[in-house]
Model the fold of this input.
Amino acid sequence: MPASANTLLETRVFQGVATALVVLALAGCTTTKDRMTTGSVPTLTKPVETMNEVELRSSTERVGQAYEKNPRDAANGVNYANLLRMQGRDAQALAVMQQVAIANPNDRNVLAAYGKAQAAAGQLQQALDTIGRAQTPDRPDWKLTSAEGAILDQLGRSAEARQRYREALDIQPGEASILSNLGMSYVLTGDLRTAETYLRQAAEQPTADSRVRQNLALVIGLEGRFPEAEKIARGELSQQQADANVAYLRSMLSQQNSWQKLAAKDGGGSAPTSTN
Done:
């Protein structure tokens, strides 16, 4: 395969893993209703990351109407931006969070959500700076520390990223999302064996959710054990959710054998590295 084509395939692989890593790292940085200002703030019945398309559209319309009435409200603005981001409307989510951050410049949760929107829009260095402002040295937040690691991974600074994950684990030992991010960090540099070790640890934790198990399924699939990967991907999900996850897993593993090439490199010789 020409070098340019191979580079393109590895770039697609990297982008898919890095996106999954950042989503998981930042998903817990804000709650659906951290505080109320004036007026009525619509509550969300479930985390936006677990909503289906119908739920996302319905919630976006409802929360968007409330945001238009009061764009200064922190909790509602964060919810609205998260809903937009989950539908791929990253530019709009970023615009919303810019306005909310202007109105609430010292709100830690707002800054964390603003950093999430910046990262989703590809503004990685800006996101790192914003999340750094949300952090307080005397009371470090493990979610923000883990999120910093995820962004550093996308910037190609894997050693610094892994140090952040270990700092987050010092604050919150055994946290599944941190262990998952650490595992996915090793995927980005082609070390699938180490990645699987951390992801299995993550999946065994009581705080593990389906996203952690999907990451484990992905890595096992990369190693060529698709039946085992599919079994994990289906897990405790409904038939519809399981089918969607397996379809996504297949799509990630079918890019002209690019994943298998990474696994082969992991088995001998130098591992590939990627930058964004």
Confidence is low (pLDDT under 50) at residues 1-15, 26-40, 256-276. The longest helix spans residues 3-27. The radius of gyration is 19 Å. The CA atoms of residues 29 and 143 lie 6 Å apart.
